[in-house]
Design goal:
4 domains; 20% strand; 3-stranded antiparallel beta sheet; alpha+beta; 4-stranded antiparallel beta sheet; Tetrahydropterin Synthase, Chain A; 8 helices
């Protein structure tokens, strides 16, 4: 009978001993609660004891957590609208304050509260600048300002906002077509200006090339005329010297040339007097001795 009671007692004692022991991981922070009140905060890893059935433990993530805010549309300082989304990284630094602020909601409740802090800060900070500032290198300073403002408000939750980044900066859908049309018109204007400047440069080059061509052609024609005139003068001098030696032979060769051009041999007909001077070399043996009797009339 005693063994019947001893075994259950040992089981109860073992269960009680096991329930009083818990471990803390290096990635966690632990709150020890007694009847709902915070009795101990444990932020170092190891093996710990608690009072069974009286004390409870709550574990919280000690790592850096992420928060993504929903994209929101709002106007900027230049009256242009943007759709902006942000991402924040945060960490629990004061576990007791965190517990009192979010209660039993834990990390999910804290994320909702942080989103309600970060989103208005994004709207307030970016609402004071232009689109160019948001899309330029000034963006880093704007994100740091959002982080600092949100960090002050998030301190009441027992958390520290480590960083805030803008993950999306888009134009609203209704403005995209107008923006694209404006960009296209601007690019078209730039293309037209480039084409006009190119045509102007091409026209200048073409005019210079034509002027150079005319100058080169004129110079070449002038040189050719000079050479041709010199050659003609030399030819005339040679002919004059040659013909001056024998005028009769010159008259004879000139007449033969005239006969060759006037009578090519393809049924040419010439009607003139047989006593014409043109046929003088056909009528006499010597062009200097005129014929004694006129030649017979040619047959028809």
């Amino acid at each position: 009978m005693k063994a019947f009671y001893i075994i259950p007692a040992l089981v109860i004692v073992a269960a009680t001993a096991l329930s009083s022991v818990f471990t803390v991981d290096e990635r966690d922070k632990v709150l020890v609660l007694q009847f709902g009140e915070i009795k101990q905060v444990i932020d170092k890893p190891g093996l710990y004891l608690k009072v069974p059935f009286i004390q409870d433990i709550l574990k919280y993530d000690d790592r850096i957590l992420g928060l993504t805010t929903a994209p929101q549309e709002f106007p900027l300082a230049d009256n242009r609208r943007l759709v902006v989304g942000a991402f924040a990284r945060w960490r629990i630094v004061d576990l007791q304050k965190f517990r009192r602020a979010v209660g039993s909601g834990g990390v999910d409740a804290a994320s909702a509260n942080l989103a309600a802090i970060v989103a208005p800060e994004v709207r307030d900070v970016l609402g004071e600048v232009t689109v160019e500032a948001v899309l330029s290198s000034s963006r880093v300073g704007l994100m740091n300002k959002i982080r600092d403002n949100a960090r002050e408000k998030a301190a009441t939750l027992g958390v520290d906002i480590i960083d805030v980044r803008l993950t999306r900066t888009d134009l609203p859908q209704q403005n995209l077509q107008a923006t694209f049309a404006r960009m296209q018109a601007e690019r078209q204007r730039e293309a037209t200006d480039e084409i006009a400047r190119g045509n102007e440069a091409a026209q200048t080059l073409r005019a210079e090339a034509e002027r150079t061509s005319v100058e080169i052609t004129s110079e070449a024609n002038k040189n050719a005329e000079i050479v041709r005139g010199q050659a003609d003068a030399k030819r005339v001098a040679i002919y004059a010297a040659a013909y001056g030696k024998d005028p009769e032979f010159f008259a004879f060769t000139r007449s033969l040339t005239a006969y060759a051009k006037a009578l090519p041999g393809d049924n040419t007909s010439i009607v003139m007097s047989p006593n014409s001077e043109f046929f003088s070399y056909f009528n006499t043996e010597s062009p200097t001795t005129p014929p004694t009797t006129p030649p017979a009339a040619p047959a028809p």
